[in-house]
Amino acid sequence: MPKANLVLIGFMGTGKTRIGKICARELGFAFRDSDTLIERKIGRRVSDIFRERGETAFRAIEREMIAELAQGTEQVISTGGGVALSDANVEVLRETGTVLWLSASPEVLLSRVGGKNAYKRPLLASAPDPLQKIREMLIEREPYYRDAADFNVLSENRRPGDIAEQIIRRFLES
Ligand code: S3P
Description:
alpha/beta, Rossmann fold, five-stranded parallel sheet, 5 strands, about 55% helix, binds shikimate-3-phosphate
């Protein structure tokens, strides 16, 4: 029996939102994106919250949002790239959700979050060498993603619909 929610974790640019929306539609679940809900609740963009209040304050807001989301059912929850780094977040999400880690290579991630999209990601926006920064962050973060996840799916070289189909199959089997 699958759990009540499907939770997508992984680095910025792995397609959590895009693929999560397809999964939600196919499963007949609600789609919830933690960053979007934070922006709605605070009335500021994530990048503004980082600039005005700092990362520590953002992480506290994020923990509250995750705890709230984990109480719901029949949701696909797309999380910000830093969510799985907190034990508290992982613990509550795993209580009600099957956790899927979406991954991709640093080069593919840069092509998705670099250039004109970089300003949206405060942790990458100021890096002089974004590819190097992505590599360093992945080395630090991958152990957390791996530990938090029930399974891993590679998010590159295939159409989002095909990736979503694979995820749904694994979720329904779990
Ligand atoms: C972050 C990822 C972002 C957003 C914030 C911090 C991170 O979400 O939560 O900028 O620490 O990796 P996305 O993964 O949706 O880009």
